[in-house]
Amino acid sequence: MDQPVVSRGFRSKRRTSGAAELPPGQYLTTDFPVLSAGPTPDIRVADWNISLQLGGTLLGRWTWDEFEALPQTTIKTDIHCVTKWTKLKTVWQGITFDDLLKVVGLDAPPNAFVMAHCDGGYTTNLPLVDLIGGRAMIATRYEGLPLAPAHGGPARLLVPHLYFWKSAKWLRRLRFMPKDEPGFWESRGYHNYGDPWREQRYDGD
Ligand SMILES: Nc1nc2c(c(=O)[nH]1)N[C@H]1C(S)=C(S)[C@@H](COP(=O)(O)O)O[C@H]1N2
Ligand SMILES: [Mo]
Questions:
Q1: Which residue ranges make up each domain of the chain?
Q2: Choice from 85, 157, 162, 169 to test ligand 1 binding pocket (greatest atom count within 8 A of CB)
Q3: Which residue from 116, 153, 136 is spatially nearest to 41, judged by alpha carbons?
């Protein structure tokens, strides 16, 4: 999920100008704004679990300790909020969706879409292809520290190549869906997919 490694000779000169890192209409920020549709839930890891569901079947459910024992990956990536801030080179640690599928032994999920469900009722929908291939993780640490509650701790989805509303905070359940369904913002006028490089902010963009 990091910037692709490009040999010096092939690196575009524009990349060092800074502008090339900014999707259209975005500005750079160095602080980390908090954007939530509701209050920050008070989550104790002792009561917490996370599950992966396919139809009526529970593929896996992990307590905090079990989840912490899964293979860990660290990534450095840029994040882009639809409210127009972009933050460069943020560092996250967690469990990639690829590893989660491996753990439950699901090589080729039969459903092409996934709904993320959160404490507090927030949801967001994603195509499966955007969660695999190292493009998404369930993050539990930010810049080496446990993820702060306001930023989705103990665990949030991280799908940095899409607008940040797709990175569901306080994640509790990932559910495979045979057909795409809109999540919270997607049913309130936001774009169904949300590619920042194509500026897919709102329905119809
Ligand atoms: N559960 C939940 N996840 C959420 C949200 C929310 O309101 N609830 N807001 C989304 C939006 S619109 C954005 S921009 C990011 C903000 O993440 P941050 O507060 O860590 O910057 O979280 C996303 N994930
Ligand atoms: Mo957002």
A1: 50-198
A2: 169
A3: 153
CA distance 89 to 162: 15
pLDDT in tens, 91-106: 999 999 999 999 999 9
**Residue 83 alpha carbon to ligand 2 centre in Å:** 6
Q: How far is the CA of 199 from the centre of ligand 2 (A)?
A: 13
How many residues are there in the chain?
205
Q: What is the pTM of this model?
A: 0.91
Best residue among 118, 158, 165 to mutate for probing ligand 1's pocket (most ligand atoms within 8 Å of CB) is 165
How is domain 50-198 classified at the CATH fold level? Sulfite Oxidase; Chain A, domain 2 (3.90.420)
pLDDT digits (tens, 9 = 90+) for 24-55: 999 999 999 999 999 999 999 999 999 999 98
Regarding the beta carbon of 170 and ligand 1, being less than 6 Å apart is answered: yes
- Residue nearest atom 10 in ligand 1 by C-alpha distance: 165
pLDDT digits (tens, 9 = 90+) for 104-132: 999 899 999 999 999 999 999 999 999 99
Measured at the CA of 202, the angle between CA 141 and CA 24, to 5 degrees, comes to 70
Eight-class DSSP state of 18: S
